[in-house]
Amino acid sequence: MPITLRSRWAFLPLILALGLISLYFLRLSIGHEAQPLPEAPRPPDAPKGPVYKDTHRELVPPLPEYFPLATNASSPADLPPVPSWNRPPEEHVPEATRLYIGFTRFWPLLQQAVVSYIAAGWPPEDIYVVENTGTMDANKRGLLTIQNPFYLDYHRLTALLGVNVITTPSLQTFAQLQNFYLFEAINNNLTHYFWSHMDVAVHSHEDKEPFRSLYMNAVDVVRETQKPDYLVDDTGHKREWGIQFFAYDWLSLVNVKTFADLGGWDTMVGYYGTDCDMYSRLSMNDYAQPVQDAGMVYDVTNSLDDLEVLYRRRPKKQQAARDNTDDVKAGSHNSTVPLSNKSYLESTEEDEKGGESFRKLAATLEQIQQDKRDDKFRNSWQLRQNGGEGEPYYYDPDGFEKALQMTIEVGTKINEEKWGHRGCDIGAVGLKEGDQWRVEHDSTFD
Q1: Which of 92, 218, 251, 439 could be disulfide-bonded to 420 (CB atoms 3.0-4.6 Å)?
Q2: In Å, what is the CA distance from 432 to each residue of 100, 243, 262, 427?
Q3: Alpha helices (runs of H) in 256-340, residue ranges in sequence order
């Protein structure tokens, strides 16, 4: 029998009823599923809210002044002159000698590094401190106190010592900082540049003849690399160089083109291991890495008691206010601030080149270096400040150190996965350029 329009309408009430019933049961089901699960009963002694760590920390003693003459100085003329035998030429050498020194924590070591390079003849205007603290312009504006790990004396560096300060926009890892140096060099049309660790102290070989200052020896290395026959073998093949080491890379000279051609440093390997990666890739691509000697470069963990000794002065007479021929000390801080820098400078004179006081200075720095080698935690100097709470861009010092160590560990693992090998001997085990991320784990993972 055909279905008429009237019969179609007859089914409408039935369809509506079925729809309403389905909607009712659907809402019951949803409502039942949305019911929260009952909370587990809380033990009667359980604390409410987060459980905080013990935040008590022993405050380290306030940092002393390791350069009293700079405290009293109002201009560079109030500081001792560079020893005559180290003084750079009045007219700058034709070669570019820009020196980058990165800084993140512990101002006394940075200050010592800068002063020692200046006293060894490096022109202050060629020294570029790269402030890598993550505190933006806080140091430039003098907003951090000396107990803050990220403090540096911007005024002393620029106005008194005459060096340059470049501030990174945010905290960089070691590898990122290296690429920042490279970036700066490229933007300034440099073919080469020097860079140095901040935890070093340097001096010239005063006891060697013919004498050349540390700075002029470094200049000689630059000149050598620019000779047409540099690294040309008997067949006429010229080998390119990548880096020149002066006491490993505590001080080094970088070939900008070489490093750029290799793509710079691997920023995925932020700290330890990134040097193994970079220098191994240089070797794999047959770039030379000569070892040079410009002067003494010490890897240190402490500051000399008074940086005045680096300027190699001695009293003119017995009753002079200061006598730097006494034992040179490190870290104990027994210095007395002179009544005036002018009276000090007038009562002292240049010491003997390579004399007894020089030998004592060299022995002291050698002992500081040995102390660092003997320290199981060789970078313990990074933990000697824990103040700064409430200051701009404050970061908990203990948290910073923990986060840093975790970052280091991750970078090390990345480098191991990159080469399928654990250890710095990447090239020695037969790995070559192009093997990155393509090889299985070797026996060092067993």
Answers
A1: 439
A2: 30, 19, 13, 6
A3: 256-261, 274-284
Q: Which of 217, 268, 265 is nearest to 418 (CA)?
A: 268
How crowded is the C-beta side of 427, counted as CA atoms within 13 Å? 13
> Looking at residue 333, what is its pLDDT?
44
Give the residue among 318, 354, 316, 310 at the shortest CA–CA distance from 113: 310
Closest by CA to 297, choosing from 438, 122, 151, is: 122
Q: How far apart (Å, rounded) are the C-alpha atoms in residues 79 and 267? A: 40
Each residue of 111-121: b (16+ CB within 10 Å) or e? bbbbbbbbbbb
- Token reading at 116: 């020692």
For 42-149, strand residue ranges (E) read 99-103, 127-131
Query: What does the mean pLDDT of the chain come to?
Result: 89
How many whole angstroms separate alpha carbon 396 and alpha carbon 390?
10
Is residue 107's pLDDT more than 60?
Answer: yes
Residue 234: alpha-carbon gap to chain centroid: 41
Secondary structure tally for the chain: helices H, strands E:
12, 11
| Measured distance CA(243)–CA(256) in Å, rounded | 9
Question: By the 8 A CB rule, do 157 and 165 touch?
Answer: yes
Q: Which residues contact 402 (CB under 8 A, 6 or more apart)?
A: none
Question: What kind and span of H or E run contains 16?
Answer: helix 12-33
Share of the chain above pLDDT 90, in %: 75
- List of residues 6+ apart from 399 with CB closer than 8 A: none
DSSP 317: S
Instruction: Give the predicted TM-score (pTM) of the model.
Output: 0.86
pLDDT (tens digit, 9 = 90+) per residue, 323-372?
A: 444 456 555 444 444 457 888 888 999 999 999 999 999 999 999 999 99
- Whose tokens are 């070591």? That residue is 109
Per-residue burial over 60-94, b if 16 or more Cβ lie within 10 Å, else e, is eeebbbbbbbbebbeeeebbbebbeebebeeeebe
Chain position carrying tokens 């806080």: 138
Do residues 195 and 129 touch, judged by C-beta distance below 8 A?
Answer: no
Q: Which of 405, 404, 442, 437 is nearest to 423 (CA)?
A: 442
Order across the sheet with 127-131: list the strands.
164-167, 127-131, 99-103, 192-196, 251-255, 243-246, 291-292
- Report the amino acid identity of residue 60: V
* DSSP β-ladder status, 313-315 and 348-350: antiparallel
pLDDT of residue 337: 44
